[in-house]
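For reference, the entry.
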Amino acid sequence: MQATDAPTTSSLDGLIDLEHYPIHDLDGESGRALIQRCHEQLADDGCVVLKNFVPEEALARLERETERLSPEAHYNQTETNPYNNAGDPERPASHPLNRFDDRTNGFVAGDRIGEDTIIRQVYQHPDFQRFIAIVVGMEEIHQYADPLADLVVNVLREGCQHPWHYDTNEFIVTMMTRQSHGGGRFEYAPGIRSPEGENFDEVEQVLDGDRSRLKALDLQPGDLQVFFGRYSLHRVTPVEGEKERHTVIFAYAKEPGFIGRPERAQRIFGRMAPIHQTLLKEGMNRSDSLAD
C-alpha cells in the first residue's frame, strides 16, 4: 500500500512518538503490531484513537502553532442540517433533511497554513500517509485537492459547537492540539449510513435523542484520531470556558482530485477558491449520490 501526492519532506523524528508508534517502519515487527491494533480498534469502535501520538515536547510547539493560526479562523453562526444543504420542503419537518441546529465554529482554511508549518509537514509526509492508507485499508490515498479544506484547523471558542453532520470525504484524520476547559465532547454513530443509502429512520432516532448506538471519546491534546466521518453521523458538543479548543484536520481521499461542493466552502470558510468558482459554473460530478 502506498500514499500519493506527497513531496519529499523532513523527518518525523521528534514530531511523532516513533518509539510507541513506529510509522517509519511499518514492515517491522513493531510496525505490524501497530497496524493490527489499529485495525482492531477500527473494527471494534468505529474509529482509531492513538493516545499521546505526539510527544509532549512537540505538542507544545504544535499548540503554539495552532494558537498563532487561530486568528485566521473564519467564524460563522448558521442553522444547518446534518447534510449541509437547504433541506427538502417536500418532506415532513421531522425528517433528518429538515432538522436544523445551530452551528457556531471557526475554521482556518488550508491556504492560510504555510508549507513550513509542522502540521503541513506531517500532513504531506510519505510515512504518515502510508500509515494512514494501511490503517484505512486502501492501496493508496491522495491529499484532498480542495485548497481550502485539505488541511484545516478547527477553532472552537466558548459556546461554539459543531452539530450532527457528516464529512465530505470517506474518512478523516484529526489531531487535537488544545483542549477546552469543558464541553467539546466528540460523539458519533458509527456507520449509520452507507454509499447504498442514507438510513434516514435511524438518523432521525439519533436526532430525537436516542443514544443507544452512540459512542463518545474523551480526546486529549496529542491524540491522533482516524475516523470514517463520511458514513458516521457525529458532532462536537458546545465548548465551555474561555480556553479555545483546537483540532487539526488532515483530509485525504481514496481518489485524486476530490473537492468539496462550492456551496459548502462558502458556508464553512466564508469564501470560495477559484476551483470552486469554476465548478459552480461548470457543475461537478461525485462518485456517490449521498445527500451532501
About this structure: Helices lie at 29-45, 56-69, 118-124, 126-135, 200-207, 262-269, 274-282. The first helix runs from residue 29 to 45.
